[in-house]
Design goal:
The chain has 189 residues and is α+β, with helices and mostly antiparallel strands. It has helices at 3-18, 21-43, 49-59, 111-117, 122-132, and strands at 62-70, 73-80, 85-91, 97-103, 136-144, 151-159, 162-169, 175-181.
Length: 189
């Protein structure tokens, strides 16, 4: 070894020993990792309703008829391009999609055809609802009101502990705030 190289190596070794040796270097590395771990965890966000719909459509192409959050999963109903109905579950953490059920859904009342013909999709209805009332979408459901022929999306938007129902017209995309309840539970449970 060249004498100058020995001096540099010796100086580096001395600095390492003075600073606490390999244990100090390992501790410094661990401290750096600990500082960056919360930032990485904070950067990960749970899958929202729009993300769940997109993931479900990627696995089962078609038209979303409903999205509903249930604990750590989203339940997404899709009418496939082949007319079959699929019930999918999307994990809120990983975004992984599972098929619960896929069957040939007989469309006796024409609701699937109306859904497929709607100008406004579930994803567009979610955006319109959040624009009308800020918060996070908890559910979206196609509603084909046979009494007066109106077709709309019913979107539940949660802000804090308050849930607001927003109806989005399936033809125009116009959002109308419907009703609210303070406990976030529509069905009284």
């Amino acid at each position: 070894m060249h004498p100058k190289h020995k001096a540099y190596v010796g100086a580096a070794a001395a600095a390492l020993l003075i600073a606490g040796g390999p244990a100090a270097a390992a501790a410094a590395h661990t401290a750096d990792a600990a500082r960056t771990a919360p930032a990485a965890a904070a950067a990960r966000a749970d899958v929202d309703a729009a993300g769940a719909a997109a993931a479900a459509l990627k696995k089962y192409p078609g038209v979303v008829s409903s999205v509903d959050k249930d604990g750590a999963v989203w339940h997404v109903d899709v009418i496939g391009k082949d007319g079959k109905h699929a019930e999918l579950t999307v994990d809120t953490r990983s975004g992984k999609v599972f098929t619960e059920n896929a069957d040939d859904d007989s469309d006796d009342d024409g609701q699937n055809k109306a859904l497929a013909a709607a100008k406004v999709t579930a994803q567009q209805a979610m955006k319109a609802a959040v624009a009308a009332h800020s918060g996070q979408v908890r559910s979206v459901e196609w509603d084909d009101d046979d009494d007066n022929g109106s077709r709309y999306w019913n979107v539940e938007v949660q802000s804090g502990d308050k849930t607001t129902n927003v109806h989005v017209d399936a033809a125009s995309g116009k959002a109308t705030v419907s009703t609210s309840d303070s406990d976030g539970d529509d069905d009284g449970n």
